[in-house]
Amino acid sequence: MNLPNSITLIRIASIPLLMWILLSSRFDGISGERELLASAIFIAAAMTDGIDGYLARKRGQVTTMGILLDPLADKLLIAAAFVTLVQLNPSLVPAWIAVIVIGREFLVSGLRSIASSEGFTIEASNLGKFKMVVQIVAVVAVILDHRWKELPVYGHYIFPIHWIASVAIWFMVCVSLASAIDYFVAFWSKIDQRGVKRRRRAFILSRRRKPVPPAQPEHDVAAST
């Protein structure tokens, strides 16, 4: 077990811990401890997404197990976070938002699986990476909103957690949908290009395979004389 895969497994192991902290009654009555601890765990788990991939490439430790576990860990983390938030803070995260977010993850995974079977890959787009950042901000803001709607910063200035959480959730939904469309367009363009190449190749091969004319029977010399 190499270091990048170990980090990925730690990210997977943090998922039930995150859900237990957010949903357990053990932290009831403790002001802010649940929200701060859950936010710290989620941010740390999300950061390992880039760390394990970077280490795997730098150390030359890209393995089949890592290729399988890394995207699986990402999908599980996001799905677990939003399913939990539906129960923790349903006013900000209704069930339909969780369906959109999780459905988008399944869609991208499905497109990548089909692309792999067709012999090409769909690279992570900048919009997809930006979506992940927006998701982290949205999840942390919704978690903190469960305890605080706003926090005093300095003097009469306050930090509007509820406003930030509301805007972040809606912005995240828009970015998730746009990212899904972006991935689908990239997938479709490559599939279409491969289809054109296949038809062109089949046409060329059909032109090369011209039918051979039947051999002419030899004339009987005796009969001709």
Characterize this entry briefly:
The chain is about 75% helix and about 5% strand. The chain is mainly α.
Description:
This protein is mainly alpha-helical and 225 residues long. It has a single domain, classed as Four Helix Bundle (Hemerythrin (Met), subunit A) (Up-down Bundle). Helix content is 74%, strand content 3%. The protein has a two-stranded antiparallel sheet with strand order 1-2. Strand 1 and strand 2 form a beta hairpin. The longest helix is centred in the last third of the chain and has 48 residues. The relative contact order is 0.10.
Layout: helices, strands, pairs:
Blueprint: H1 3-23, H2 33-58, H3 64-88, H4 95-117, H5 126-145, E1 151-154, E2 157-159, H6 161-208, H7 221-224
Antiparallel strand pairs: 1-2
Helix pairs in contact: 1-2, 1-3, 2-3, 2-5, 3-4, 3-5, 4-6, 5-6
Mean pLDDT: 83
Which percent range describes the beta-strand content?
Answer: under 5%
What class do helices, strands and sheet pairing give?
A: mainly alpha
Across the major sheet, the strand order is: 1-2
Helix and strand succession? HHHHHEEHH
**Low-confidence runs of at least 5 consecutive residues:** 221-225
Shape: elongated
CATH topology: Four Helix Bundle (Hemerythrin (Met), subunit A)
CATH class: Mainly Alpha
- Put simply, the count of helices is 7
- What is the total number of structural domains? 1
Measured on Cα atoms, how large is the radius of gyration? Answer: 28 Å
- Biggest beta sheet summary: 2 strands, antiparallel
What is the number of beta strands?
A: 2
Q: Can you name the CATH architecture? A: Up-down Bundle
Terminal Cα span: 90 Å
**CATH homologous superfamily caption:** CDP-alcohol phosphotransferase transmembrane (TM) domain
How much helical structure, as a percent, in the residues? Answer: over 70%
